[in-house]
TrEMBL record, chain A:
<dbReference type="GO" id="GO:0051604">
    <property type="term" value="P:protein maturation"/>
</dbReference>
<dbReference type="GO" id="GO:0003924">
    <property type="term" value="F:GTPase activity"/>
</dbReference>
<keyword id="KW-0533">Nickel</keyword>
<dbReference type="GO" id="GO:0005525">
    <property type="term" value="F:GTP binding"/>
</dbReference>
<protein>
    <submittedName>
        <fullName>[NiFe] hydrogenase nickel incorporation-associated protein HypB</fullName>
    </submittedName>
</protein>
<keyword id="KW-0862">Zinc</keyword>
<dbReference type="InterPro" id="IPR003495">
    <property type="entry name" value="CobW/HypB/UreG_nucleotide-bd"/>
</dbReference>
<keyword id="KW-0342">GTP-binding</keyword>
<dbReference type="InterPro" id="IPR004392">
    <property type="entry name" value="Hyd_mat_HypB"/>
</dbReference>
TrEMBL record, chain B:
<dbReference type="Pfam" id="PF01155">
    <property type="entry name" value="HypA"/>
</dbReference>
<comment type="similarity">
    <text>Belongs to the HypA/HybF family.</text>
</comment>
<feature type="binding site">
    <location>
        <position position="73"/>
    </location>
    <ligand>
        <name>Zn(2+)</name>
    </ligand>
</feature>
<feature type="binding site">
    <location>
        <position position="93"/>
    </location>
    <ligand>
        <name>Zn(2+)</name>
    </ligand>
</feature>
<dbReference type="GO" id="GO:0051604">
    <property type="term" value="P:protein maturation"/>
</dbReference>
<comment type="function">
    <text>Involved in the maturation of [NiFe] hydrogenases. Required for nickel insertion into the metal center of the hydrogenase.</text>
</comment>
<keyword id="KW-0862">Zinc</keyword>
<feature type="binding site">
    <location>
        <position position="76"/>
    </location>
    <ligand>
        <name>Zn(2+)</name>
    </ligand>
</feature>
<feature type="binding site">
    <location>
        <position position="2"/>
    </location>
    <ligand>
        <name>Ni(2+)</name>
    </ligand>
</feature>
Length: 227, 114
């Protein structure tokens, strides 16, 4: 008996499973009235520090919490708790990104309607997190001035899946001879029109503006439950 | 490297399709991969060979068709293809745009087998 080769034509997204889970998460976030932000950056861009400060800033007027994806060797959750916010940790082992399923597991037993904002700190990586929708409302990519002006052009996929760019550690700009215009031009070449905010956790510069922009975005999504 | 996880997902889907169709063995998987998919082709080939070992897709080949970024130019009112995603502007009139119509796909389009 000879077997005839056959071609089965389909069209199926390889990440369908993640996308379906992410959609379910998004519906849940929506129903609970919690605005969810996914933070992505390379390691050392100051993501944890920026998040600690924005949690502190927002907690004066809103109920905030965070989920953090930590490699086995890190403990960012501990640092984030200094903000006073409720923080849950996902230990990713060697996995280089968070997936919707990990977020779903981390949410277990948490009543989301007690929250206004939930931040998800992704694993420090500018490549892999781009492909995985976590059901977030907004994806934020952070670059520190110490990473140089051209970095955005090396990660077009991530920036094109993001809604906001945050430039961090601007207090160090002069010391590292950072050319702000050149950075902004690079961002504009990769994703024209994306919003860019500039912050310094050290001096506090820009944190208020970023917080206000998050509150505005949240009020826009949940107009009925404005504070 | 998330290509290992992508390759595993791809294989799971292909196996599901093959079993539904009564195939005994997968000989080829055809994939459409967008320039903005975030997946590195070479890394995916490498990962695929690893995950396929010991499965019904062992020794099968992966055929990747690369898909350009398609943007919509607000000035020309036309879709335009970009083979490099930078700069994001119309190659004809140079107008900037963030309106991406395709180029992010990681889609299985066919499974071949016996
Ligand atoms: Zn044009």
């Amino acid at each position: 008996m000879t077997l005839t080769p056959r071609i089965v034509e389909v069209r199926q997204n390889v990440l369908k499973k993640n996308d379906i889970l992410a959609r379910a998460l998004r519906e849940r976030f929506q129903a609970s009235g919690v605005y969810v932000v996914n933070l992505v950056s390379s390691p050392g861009a100051g993501k944890t520090t920026a998040l600690t400060h924005i949690l502190t800033e927002l907690s004066t007027s809103h109920r905030v919490a965070a989920i953090v994806g930590d490699l086995a060797t890190e403990n960012d959750a501990e640092r984030l708790r200094e903000s006073g916010a409720d923080v849950r940790q996902i230990t990713t082992g060697t996995v280089c990104h968070l997936e919707a399923q990990m977020v779903e597991e981390a949410l277990h037993g948490w009543s989301l309607d007690t929250l206004d904002f939930l931040f998800i700190e992704n694993v420090g990586n500018l490549v892999c997190p781009a492909s995985y929708d976590l059901g977030e409302h907004e994806r934020v990519v952070l670059f520190s001035v110490t990473e140089g002006e051209d970095k955005p052009e090396k990660y077009p996929t991530l920036i094109n899946s993001s809604d906001t760019v945050i430039m961090t550690k601007i207090d160090l700009a002069e010391a590292v001879d950072f050319n702000r215009e050149r950075f902004l031009r690079a961002v504009e070449r990769v994703r024209p029109g994306i919003a860019v905010y500039e912050i310094s956790a050290k001096t506090g510069a820009g944190l208020k503006e970023w917080a206000n922009r998050l509150i505005e975005a949240r009020n826009h999504i949940f107009p009925m439950v404005q504070n | 490297m998330h290509e290992l996880s992508i390759a595993q997902n791809m294989l799971d889907i292909a196996q599901e399709i093959a079993e539904e169709q009564g195939l005994l063995r997968i000989t080829q998987i055809h994939l459409r991969l967008g320039v903005l998919s975030g997946v590195v082709k070479e890394a995916l080939f490498f990962a695929y060979d690893i995950v396929a070992q010991g499965t019904m897709a062992e020794a099968s080949s992966l055929v990747i068709e690369e898909v350009p970024v398609v943007i919509f130019c607000p000035e020309c009112q036309e879709e335009r293809s970009l083979f490099r995603p930078i700069p994001m502007r119309c190659p004809v009139c140079q107008t900037k745009t963030a309106d991406i119509r395709s180029g992010r796909e990681i889609d299985i389009i066919a499974v071949e087998g016996v």
